[in-house]
Every structure is written in structure tokens, then in C-alpha cells.
């Protein structure tokens, strides 16, 4: 269950991750200084960093590649949640979309590839480590984990999170309610962790390619709807977008393009990676069969 611990450690280490916005007026001239050091965000990230740093020194087998992925993933989280991009997301729909894409397409896959379960567990005191290990080995936890990381269920959860939270009523609610905003970000981030986990560690290249292709397709459709629609879906930004030189419709179109094009490129690039891995595996299998036949 070492793999199970990876996402569990992230979840336990960041229980109040992605807490939402604070009141305040943001303008282009003070954007650079608009870093948000919300304790509910910063402290869990710092705790996760300390646990990983401490555990990576103790746990054997933590490669430099894994450590690089982890710190890049943490950097992406900081960019999305602590940097000025976070308050800007309350002013511009396009910035909000960029924040979400960083969480789902940068931070989540990097942290999954880092495989931080073992080092983070080694960073925890021994008696807690044993308790957590025993908990993750229980049949119930194993069964739930296998279900959540099955490619089909992980795909459904992630797709549902994306489409449901972009419904105008719910998206508007995130701009008015800290709780709704927190739930939205948590849904995006943790469903993305499950989605990427199902691709990298299920070792089913065909399912991975299909998941990525269909995700690129449905997110591209949503992005196209946002880009090409003549109507503004999220009127809350009508009050703030002009401050940044954009009409509400232009802001929405830019946000749609961010989901449609850059995000689509990430999915297609990942799909090509799995296609290449699939071909390599096929070549190795064919070579082994040829050796046995001879």
C-alpha cells in the first residue's frame, strides 16, 4: 500500500488546502505585492515540505528525479494558491481558469510522479507511522483505493468535478462563499490526483491513452463553449474584468482558450508519452517471445 499512502499523505498533510479568498481591493499597480500567506494554506504546505525533506533523508530509494518532481509540484501549488494569481482569480475568470489548470495539469501530475508516500511517512514519528501503515493496509481502505484509482472511476470523478463546478450557479457561488471556493479547489485537485494516479500506476497503457484522449475531448468541448459563446456565463466578473482592460466576454473567452488549447496540449503530450511506452512494451514482449521460440 505504499502507493496508497502517496495521495493519503498529501490529503492528510493539507487538510485545509486551497482555502479561498480574502476580502480586499486588487488593482494592476499592487498585483505584484498581492501574495497571500493564509495560514490555512501556507502551514499545511510547509508541514508537507518538512515531512518530505526529513523523510527523504531517511528513506532509501528516494531518487533525485522523485525529489525534483515533488519540489516542482510544491512550487506549482504555491504559484496557484499563494502567489498573486490567487487573488487575481477573483478579479478575472481567465486567471481563475489558469489557477485551476495549474492545480490539475501541473501540480497534481508532478506530485503523483514524485511518489512521496515513503519519504513523507518516514518524516512522521515512528508510532504514528505504524498506525498510518496499519490503517492503509486494512481491507476497506484497500478496496476503496482500488475503486477510486480504477481508470474508469477516476475518469468519471475528475470529469464530473470539472463540469459540475463550471455550471454558472456553482461557479458564481465560489466567488461569494469561502466554503464553496474551498470545495471547488479540493474537488479539482484531489480528483486530478486520482486521475493521474490511475494513469501512471495502473500500468494499463491503453486505458491511459483512452482516458487522456477523452479528457482532452470533453475539456476541449467545455473550453470551446466558453470561448465561442456570445453570452457571459459568470456575471460576477463583470464588475472586475474592466479594471484589467478586458470586457467580461473577452475575459471569459480567454479563460475558455486556456482550457481549450494549453490544457489540450498537456493531455495530448501525456497521451503520446503513454503511446511510446506502450510501443516499447510491445517491442519487449515481442523480443521475449522470439527468444523463447528460438
List keywords for this structure.
74% helix; single chain; mainly alpha; 0% strand
Structural summary, described in words:
This protein has one domain. It has 14 helices and no strands. The protein has helices spanning 2-13, 39-58, 64-81, 85-88, 93-114, 117-122, 126-136, 139-148, 151-165, 168-174, 178-200, 205-228, 248-260, 262-293. The longest helix is centred in the C-terminal third of the chain and has 32 residues, at 262-293.
Oligomer: single chain
Runs in which pLDDT lies below 50 for 5 or more consecutive residues are 1-23
Q: How many discrete domains?
A: 1
Mean pLDDT: 86
As a whole number of angstroms, the C-alpha radius of gyration is 21 Å
Residues in helix, %: over 70%
Ends apart, CA distance between termini: 39 Å
At a glance:
With 294 residues, this protein is an all-alpha fold. 74% of the residues lie in helices and 0% in strands. It has one domain.
Q: How is the secondary structure organized here?
A:
Elements: H1 2-13, H2 39-58, H3 64-81, H4 85-88, H5 93-114, H6 117-122, H7 126-136, H8 139-148, H9 151-165, H10 168-174, H11 178-200, H12 205-228, H13 248-260, H14 262-293
Helix pairs in contact: 2-3, 3-5, 5-11, 5-13, 9-11, 9-12, 10-11, 12-13, 12-14
Amino acid at each position: 500500500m505504499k502507493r496508497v499512502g502517496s495521495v493519503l499523505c498529501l490529503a492528510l498533510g493539507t487538510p485545509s488546502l486551497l482555502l479561498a479568498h480574502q476580502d480586499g481591493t486588487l488593482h494592476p499597480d499592487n498585483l505584484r505585492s498581492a501574495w497571500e500567506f493564509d495560514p490555512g494554506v501556507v502551514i499545511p504546505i510547509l508541514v508537507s515540505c518538512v515531512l518530505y525533506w526529513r523523510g527523504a533523508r531517511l528513506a532509501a530509494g528516494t531518487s533525485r528525479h522523485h525529489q525534483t518532481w515533488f519540489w516542482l509540484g510544491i512550487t506549482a501549488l504555491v504559484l496557484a494558491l499563494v502567489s498573486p494569481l490567487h487573488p487575481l482569480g477573483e478579479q478575472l475568470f481567465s486567471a481563475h481558469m489558469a489557477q485551476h489548470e495549474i492545480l490539475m495539469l501541473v501540480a497534481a501530475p508532478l506530485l503523483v510522479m514524485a511518489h512521496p508516500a515513503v519519504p513523507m511517512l518516514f518524516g512522521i514519528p515512528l508510532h504514528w507511522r505504524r498506525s498510518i501503515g496499519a490503517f492503509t493496509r486494512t481491507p476497506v481502505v484497500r478496496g476503496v483505493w482500488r475503486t477510486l484509482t480504477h481508470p474508469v472511476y477516476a475518469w468519471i470523478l475528475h470529469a464530473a468535478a470539472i463540469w459540475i463546478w463550471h455550471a454558472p450557479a456553482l461557479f458564481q457561488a465560489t466567488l461569494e462563499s469561502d466554503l464553496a471556493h474551498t470545495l471547488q479547489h479540493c474537488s479539482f485537485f484531489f480528483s486530478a490526483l486520482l486521475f493521474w494516479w490511475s494513469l501512471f500506476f495502473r500500468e494499463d497503457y491503453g486505458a491511459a491513452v483512452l482516458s487522456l484522449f477523452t479528457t482532452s475531448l470533453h475539456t476541449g468541448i467545455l473550453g470551446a463553449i466558453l470561448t465561442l459563446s456570445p453570452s457571459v456565463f459568470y456575471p460576477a466578473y463583470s464588475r472586475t474584468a474592466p479594471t484589467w482592460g478586458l470586457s467580461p466576454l473577452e475575459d471569459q473567452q480567454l479563460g475558455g482558450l486556456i482550457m481549450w488549447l494549453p490544457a489540450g496540449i498537456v493531455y495530448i503530450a501525456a497521451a503520446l508519452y503513454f503511446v511510446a511506452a506502450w510501443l516499447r512494451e510491445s517491442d519487449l514482449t515481442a523480443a521475449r517471445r522470439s527468444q523463447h521460440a528460438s
